[in-house]
TrEMBL record:
Matches recorded under Pfam families: WD40 (PF00400)
Stated family: Belongs to the WD repeat UTP18 family.
SUPFAM superfamilies: WD40 repeat-like
The UniProt record lists the keyword 4Fe-4S: no
Disordered: annotated segments: 116-154, 233-258
Skewed-composition ranges (Acidic residues): 249-258
BP GO terms, sorted: rRNA processing
Protein name per UniProt: U3 small nucleolar RNA-associated protein 18 homolog
Subcellular location(s) per record: Nucleus, Nucleolus
GO CC annotations, alphabetized: Pwp2p-containing subcomplex of 90S preribosome; small-subunit processome
Keywords: Coiled coil, Nucleus, Repeat, rRNA processing, WD repeat
Coiled-coil residues: 9-60
SMART domains hit by this protein: WD40
Amino acid sequence: MFKNRPLLDKDLLKKRKKLKKKLSKLNRQKYRNIDGNDDDEKLKNEKKNIINNEEKLLEDIVFNTNASILNRIDRNVDLISIDLDENPTNNVDNNDDNNLPNNLFIVDKHGDDRNIDFDDDDDDGHDKNVTDIVDDGHKQQREESMPVDDDDDRMAQRFKTELFEKLHGDGGKQNDQSKTKQVWFDDDDEIDVSIALDDCKKLPKSVKSQDKYRQYLERKFTEIYEPPNWAQSKTLENKRKSRQHKDQDTDDSDDDNEIQVEQIAYGNLKRPNQIHQLNKEFLRVKKCPHLNQSSRIRTPLNCLQFHRNSTVAMIGSSIGLIRLFQVDGKLNSIIQSIYFQGYRLTDARFISLNGREEILVGSDGMNTKCHGFCYYYDMLVGKILRIPLTKGGKHRYSLRKFQISPNNQFIAACDDNGNINLLSSTTKELISEMKINGNVNCLSFSPDSNYLIAHGEQTGGQAFIFDIRQSNKQCINRFNDLDTISATSMDLSPTGNLLAIGSNMGVINLYQFNDVIKQTNPKPIKSVMNLTTAITSVRFNHDGQLLLFASNQKNDSIRFLNTNSMTVYKNFPLFVGGNSGRTYGRIFDLDFSPHSGYASFVTGHGTGHLFRINEYSNY
């Protein structure tokens, strides 16, 4: 930082030493000539001149009229705090990082390491004008006068006052707003990570054993979530303050733009998009680097979800490996890898409830070694916990094609023989059991988490609606799904007005939710027949204007539907199929980011494809 700056002028230090020697000599001469009044008067005047010269020299050493005190500090000078309490009005909160210590003295590493003081023994005080330096970058002015006392403490106090005025330029007035101090200290926060995570076989790669457990948790929290509101405002305020110390010639517009971008980035998860109608024929979409480009492995991917409250996406594979990525559309850096060894993973979902953040994983039960239990990963603590899944003491079940309610309180999972298991997301215990005719293949919660819709095969083409607010979880309606023999996927729009049901014939029926909850034979407002194989994935975006659907039985079987015009966009998928020689492969899961800024899907090739939807400005 100070490499190219000139060293402290050694000539000034030499002059100061000469003045001190001369002053000491005059003091000795004074005591030898006690009877000589004229000589005594001359000695006093000469001593006064020496003191004035030394004061001026001291100011030249410490201050510079063309630069701040920070620009005078180099390799040879240290600023060290000392304890001076005579003037309580000039106290400064040294806990504030924006303030330098208010009591300083100079230490020359090459020479004198003593306090800057005056070694005369004269007890007589003399009035003189004192230069009070007020640093506005360009000028100095004399504002007040005070008597000069030869006492060391008095001179140190004067030096303290001048330095405080130099640094703050506020006449020594203390800032009214004092920094809030921490009122609670927990000894457990100071333990090392190696002690807190002693039951783990090995620590994460980015964690060192000597790191503090509190710092580890804070870093992990900020990786997953956006900073809290109080931290956002404090960060931006500190950046503005730090930029005030920059040179006046720099362009402030760049800094202002940077702060504005940061404010948008912090608020993009909460700020609603401006509602506008999408283009009916052309969707403005851009291909981004792969979601898992920072850490890609050649294994089929079958799980994908964007976190609802942060810019994090989760990708999972059937070998039991889950990876978290920071979504920015450019680097998409990997945050963490979680391995559920020996577990055949088919579904994974985020759970956010009461300050807890978890990843729940389930299996379809096809592998007997994975039947009868599930896992969840505590994202803040960093632990994997195994949960047994039994009912009636003997019967074991699995979390097949499970769904999390929008309020994160319930887990609904498909079971054998048309049974539906409803669990508490907090305790992972079975709350209730519901049943439909036939086999259940797909579930969907209403946006208010009051209703659960179930559909499947061998149901006679019927779908069932349960009111989970009731203690007996009663089925309040069943309706006939037009021309559907076997339902393979289903989703209800976040706005609560549209229900999409995909069948094994490649047809998607779109219904008004108000119709299906009241009528037994509702008429679909649209039947989409663009795909020819079973619809295995359907997903509405946050405002219900887009429907993304796909099939995992044929390469590149994915489409966007505009729900306003009920038309399928012709410009998607991009640059694949035909004679291009490019293919996405089979698509196993898909999702939108919280405000539809991104759409993504994962394939059997081990790739997470990411697209920027330019129709939406937010993440």
